[in-house]
């Protein structure tokens, strides 16, 4: 490639953030038009005017000219896709809105070139790209947008019980130059941050593509068969362990059974006869819809647990009551039904 044909992307100098680092990764790694483009970090408007694309600086949002800033007072844009119409976009969100499907498709291609699947995945199904695009925004990009724009995840009257300092944004932010250290250069540190953003993006897509997306029809089938498991319809059974919760809430809403599923039963491993029983959380909460029985929780002595529960091959129950295990399906099923009965009795009191 001739040097004069290399496109140039402008973004701001100074302290860098999770959004423009991710935006630059998406453009330079996963788009045809800007692959391997040169990144120029500046706030000089005359230099920015010469760029092929400008993101997160410049005070202008004009996609027809490839200007993607969100800092100007007039900007209130959101993804405007499905339910994602509330969180104001950052530089990353703007690039995702205009280039995201190309980015996701290229990341998918990269992932599939490096794995051997044991399931059938119809990569030509247009719904696959749509669903992964939406999932990755909801599980990753929306938080980047919200944090960069100062949007609180929860109501401001709620005080957090602890701080979380190892998330994606924190891992990018810590690579900014250190005031007490000589010799660190902003642009060098920015380049060090880009592989972290790329790794996070790829793993978000990988998780959505290989774990989340193929699980949806399995969870849907389990929901349709729930009355064959137990007359209450509150217990679902899976023949393999797959991600449940992220699909469950959406599917419950689609089937008009919101909040009705209390437990999921699934085998411990591929060749294992042991089973697990997992209590379902309230959406976006650690609180459980129906925990396992109080008197079983946190007992380390298996013999004592057997005597209290009267279940011969019970193995454990977590102290919070969110999960338990037994050496057979029948016993795991009994753990769920007895726990349902306990909550029913408590409500009647």
UniProtKB/TrEMBL annotation:
Family annotation (InterPro entries)? MYG1_exonuclease (IPR003226)
Pfam families given in the database record:
MYG1_exonuc
Q: Where are the transmembrane segments?
A: none
Cellular component terms per the entry's GO annotation: cytoplasm; nucleus
Family named by the database record: Belongs to the MYG1 family.
Q: What is this protein called?
A: Metal-dependent protein hydrolase
Q: Which organism is it from?
A: Pseudocohnilembus persalinus (Ciliate)
């Amino acid at each position: 490639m001739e040097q004069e044909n290399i496109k140039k992307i402008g973004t701001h100098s100074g302290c860098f953030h999770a959004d423009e680092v991710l935006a630059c990764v998406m453009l330079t790694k996963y788009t045809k038009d800007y692959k391997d483009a040169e990144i120029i970090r500046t706030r000089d408007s005359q230099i920015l005017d010469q760029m092929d694309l400008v993101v997160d600086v410049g005070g202008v949002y004009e996609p027809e000219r490839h200007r993607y800033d969100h800092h100007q007072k007039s900007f209130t844009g959101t993804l405007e896709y499905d339910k994602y119409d509330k969180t104001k976009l950052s530089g990353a969100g703007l690039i995702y809105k205009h280039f995201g499907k190309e980015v996701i498709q290229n990341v998918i291609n990269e992932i599939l070139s490096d794995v051997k699947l044991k399931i059938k995945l119809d990569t030509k199904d247009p719904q696959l790209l749509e669903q992964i695009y939406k999932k990755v925004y909801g599980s990753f990009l929306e938080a980047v947008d919200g944090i960069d724009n100062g949007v609180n995840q929860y109501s401001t009257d709620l005080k957090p019980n602890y701080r979380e300092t190892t998330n994606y944004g924190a891992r990018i932010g810590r690579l900014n130059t250190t005031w007490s250290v000589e010799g660190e250069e902003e642009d060098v540190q920015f380049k060090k941050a880009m592989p972290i953003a790329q790794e996070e993006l790829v793993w978000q897509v990988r998780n959505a593509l290989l774990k989340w997306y193929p699980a949806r029809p399995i969870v849907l089938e389990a929901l349709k068969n729930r009355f064959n498991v137990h007359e209450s319809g509150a217990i679902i059974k899976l023949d393999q362990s797959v991600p449940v919760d992220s699909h469950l809430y959406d599917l419950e809403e689609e089937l008009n059974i919101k909040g009705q599923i209390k437990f999921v039963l699934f085998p411990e491993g591929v060749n294992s006869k042991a089973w697990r029983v997992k209590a379902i959380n309230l959406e976006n909460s650690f609180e459980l819809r129906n925990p396992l029985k109080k008197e079983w929780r946190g007992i380390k002595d298996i013999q004592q647990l057997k005597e209290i529960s009267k279940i011969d091959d019970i193995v454990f129950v977590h102290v919070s009551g969110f999960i338990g295990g037994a050496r057979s399906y029948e016993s795991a099923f009994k753990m769920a039904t007895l726990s349902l009965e306990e909550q029913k009795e408590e409500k009647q009191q």
